[in-house]
C-alpha cells in the first residue's frame, strides 16, 4: 500500500489521528528551529512553524506526494508555553494553567498541488490543581515532551474542566481542518 502523503512529524499522536481517519502516510520528520521570533504573536508563530516544517520536508524528501506538517502551542495571556525544559519549568507552567482558561493553537500546513493552511484555536479550562497532583503528574513522565506540560488525551485530561473547540486540535492535529485540506488536494478520507 503506497502512502498518500508524507507526515513531517515524529509525533505518535499525529500518527494516531491520521490512522483514525484512514490516511496512509510515511513518517519523515524534519528538524527546524522552533524558537519564537521577538514579539511574534502566537497565531503567526504556529502558522510559520507549520509552514517551515512542510517546506523543509519538501526540500528534503521531494514533492512526489503531498507533505503534511503541523505545530501546536499552548497559549496563556498571549504567551506561548512551549515544552518544559525540566521539572521546575513543567510545574511552573502547570501552576499557571491551574484554575484558568488558556488557548491551544494548532496550525496545519499541507504542500502538494498547492500550499494549503488551516488553524484550529481551542479554549481549555483547567480546574484548580493541588501541588501533590502536579508532582504525581510529573512523576508519571507524561508532561516531559508536551506543549504546556500536559496531554489532554492522557492523564492530563483529568485537569480539564471544559473544552471549547477541537479535541483533536488540542492533541496536535485538528481532524476537521486536516480533512478539508486533504480533500482540496484530492486525498480522500476513509
Automatic annotation (TrEMBL):
The record marks 13, 72, 153 as: Important for substrate specificity. Nucleoside triphosphate pyrophosphatase that hydrolyzes dTTP and UTP. May have a dual role in cell division arrest and in preventing the incorporation of modified nucleotides into cellular nucleic acids. Its cofactor is a divalent metal cation. InterPro entries: ITPase-like_fam (IPR029001), Maf-like (IPR003697). One of its GO terms (cellular component) is cytoplasm. The active site is at residue 71. Keywords: Cytoplasm, Hydrolase, Nucleotide metabolism. The lineage of its organism: Bacteria, Pseudomonadati, Pseudomonadota, Gammaproteobacteria, Methylococcales. The keyword Cytoplasm applies. Pfam families: Maf. It catalyses: UTP + H2O = UMP + diphosphate + H(+); dTTP + H2O = dTMP + diphosphate + H(+). This is dTTP/UTP pyrophosphatase. SUPFAM superfamilies: ITPase-like. It is found in: Cytoplasm. It is an enzyme of class 3 (hydrolase).
Amino acid at each position: 500500500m503506497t502512502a498518500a502523503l508524507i507526515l513531517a512529524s515524529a509525533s505518535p499522536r499525529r500518527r494516531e489521528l491520521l490512522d483514525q481517519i484512514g490516511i496512509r502516510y510515511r513518517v519523515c520528520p524534519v528538524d527546524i528551529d522552533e524558537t519564537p521570533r521577538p514579539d511574534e504573536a502566537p497565531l503567526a508563530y504556529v502558522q510559520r512553524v507549520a509552514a517551515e516544517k512542510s517546506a523543509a520536508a519538501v526540500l528534503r524528501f521531494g514533492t512526489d506526494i503531498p507533505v503534511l506538517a503541523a505545530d501546536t502551542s499552548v497559549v496563556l495571556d498571549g504567551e506561548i508555553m512551549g515544552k518544559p525544559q525540566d521539572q521546575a519549568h513543567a510545574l511552573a507552567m502547570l501552576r499557571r494553567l491551574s484554575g484558568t482558561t488558556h488557548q491551544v493553537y494548532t496550525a496545519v500546513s499541507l504542500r502538494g498541488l498547492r500550499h494549503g493552511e488551516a488553524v484550529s484555536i481551542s479554549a481549555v479550562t483547567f480546574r484548580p490543581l493541588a501541588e501533590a497532583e502536579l508532582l504525581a503528574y510529573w512523576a508519571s513522565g507524561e508532561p516531559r515532551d508536551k506543549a504546556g506540560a500536559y496531554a489532554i488525551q492522557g492523564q492530563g485530561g483529568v485537569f480539564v474542566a471544559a473544552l471549547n473547540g477541537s479535541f483533536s486540535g488540542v492533541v496536535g492535529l485538528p481532524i476537521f481542518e486536516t480533512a478539508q485540506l486533504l480533500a482540496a488536494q484530492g486525498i480522500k478520507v476513509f
